[in-house]
Amino acid sequence: MTRPQLPHPARTIGRRRRCPAGIRYRTKALALAALHGHVGDSGQEAVPCGLGCGGWHHQRRSSA
User: Fold this and answer.
1) What is the rounded CA–CA span in Å between residue 63 and residue 31?
2) Which of 22, 38, 41, 45 is spaced 20 to 30 A from 11 at the CA atom?
3) Which top-level group of life is the source organism from (predicted)?
4) Cα distance between residue 48 and residue 24, in whole Å
């Protein structure tokens, strides 16, 4: 009896691809909590991903 071959390496099963925008937070609340965990104003804000990963990321606060 032979084992069926997987179409891809087993280590990739169940893993999400990394978003090029950076660390992905599942909700806005989690992204804000990560920002407020730092001491002082970091100059960043939580924004939805513009690349389509469905998550939230941090980006530099705009001056305007």
Assistant:
1) 20
2) 22
3) Bacteria
4) 10
Task: Look at residue 60 in the predicted model and tell me its pLDDT.
Answer: 86
Token reading at 57: 């990321």
Q: Which range marks the domain in which residue 42 is found? A: 24-60
Written as six digits, the tokens of 47 are 């924004």
How many whole angstroms separate alpha carbon 21 and alpha carbon 9? 25
> Are 25 and 56 within 8 A, CB to CB?
yes
10 lies in a domain? no
Number of domains in the chain: 1
Q: What pLDDT does 51 receive?
A: 86
Please tell me the distance from the alpha carbon of residue 15 to that of residue 39, in angstroms, as a whole number: 32
**Is the separation of the CB atoms in 59 and 44 below 8 Å?**
yes
Give 2-44 pLDDT, tens digit per residue.
Answer: 666 666 666 655 666 778 888 889 999 998 888 877 655 668 8
